[in-house]
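A quick aside before the break. I want you to see a complete sequence-to-structure record at least once, exactly as it would be stored in a machine-readable document. Don't worry about memorizing anything.
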Amino acid sequence: MSPVPYRTWCEIDESALHHNLAVIRARIGLHPKIMCLVKADAYGHGLKALSRFFQNSDCQMLGCANVTEALLIRKAKVRLPVLLLSAPLKMEMQEIVRNRFITTLSSLEEAEELGKVALRQKTRARCHIKLNTGMNRLGVDLENLLELLSQVQNDPSLKLEGFYSHYACADSDPAFTRKQWELFQGIQSTGLCRHICNSAGLLALPESAADMVRPGLAVYGLSTLKKYQKLFRPALSWKARITFIRDVPRGTPLSYGATYKTPRRMKVATVAAGYGDGLFRSLSNKGRVLVNGRICPILGRVTMDQILIDISRAGNVPNESEVVLVGSQGRQTLLASDMADEAGTIAYEITCHITDRVPRLYRHG
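That is the input. The structure line, written in tokens, reads:
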């Protein structure tokens, strides 16, 4: 890729997305469908662009959080079925039904209201019933399932297309995960699509792939189960440019609050990225970046638009050189999960927090 006219930007590698989908397909076999999750701006990768990509890949359905996201998918001219994974609000149901989005139902009240809206529109509303098997966030409790199922099946304005649940700790508690799978297996759903696997679930318990899986982070090339990370290729790289370089004597305070003082003479570079771009302030004095393929530490506090880094050991570094915040340079790689460990958070939050002022550039693979 030729030099780009941005101070900070993200590059999305579509060949990595193809690779990750192939890894998922190999893991689950030929039968199950794949629902790619594009909520939260496709985990920071760009909802419209990624929805268009998935429409032309091994993806049979999209999952998002709300109507606003679902409408953006349609504005991108993507016709894949869309499941709304959050509980529907009454004020959203008219748009949900009009646009043929698939609604998640967890209660009688939701089913009754959705049926009324569909009746007024003289159509049938598509829906999946969600079961609570242990996540306790959404979903009908198992003892109330038959009542909800009866309501949905006896309402001619509702079209039940599937059942699903969600693993709570597939990346940390195999026994609890298997218990959830056993509860879910007890549901008979002839002719309906059943799905429970998130990314960690399809890796840790691939036999529970059922009729469809719902990978999010894995599609984008990251795994919360570290032993599987080598199978995937991260699709997102985050880069920035050096804007200023100075030689700093020993004992010089750096950035807001003077929380860092140079222990020796250092070459310090200013980089055009900060918490206004989504770089966590908690990376102050402990984050790392790559320059010339060398790891360079963040010095002092992360500010809104800039950080300071130590380039003393990075060799010849001209001004406007490229800095890698997340991604690879030379033989070194910094994953979003590495940054998350330093920031005290999770990889999901790293990519989701990259703000809109950071352009996303797409490499077609």
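Two observations worth writing down. The longest helix spans residues 14-28. The longest strand covers residues 236-248. We'll return to this after the break.
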